[in-house]
Amino acid sequence: MKLGFPNKHGTRNADDVEIDGQYTVGALVGSNFGGTIDSCYTTGEVTGHTGDAQSNPNGFGYIGGLAGGNFRTITHCYSEVIVNVVGSVGAGFGGLVGYSRATTRRPRW
After folding, report:
1. Which partner for 99 in 9, 47, 92, 108 could form a disulfide, CB atoms 3.0-4.6 Å apart?
2. Is the pTM above the cut of 0.90?
């Protein structure tokens, strides 16, 4: 994985990632709880394991190409990440964000 230098907004890029994680997984961040992710991109592959009813009784898992979960703002970003979900428990997953309860705007192309 190559983590780029911060851009003028302080956000970094993540190139050619190979991430394997559990429950809340993203190429740049697991979850964005308190800030703005702006003008960035990610490439590579992310695998998120959601487990089963015994190992994950709450039944959550957020797997995304940029962020697993987003609770603030993502703007002017894009993701070229293969997203894999492993497990029998339901999950939110997506190419950019697995679950968003906030703002995602204007893709950057």
Report:
1. 92
2. no
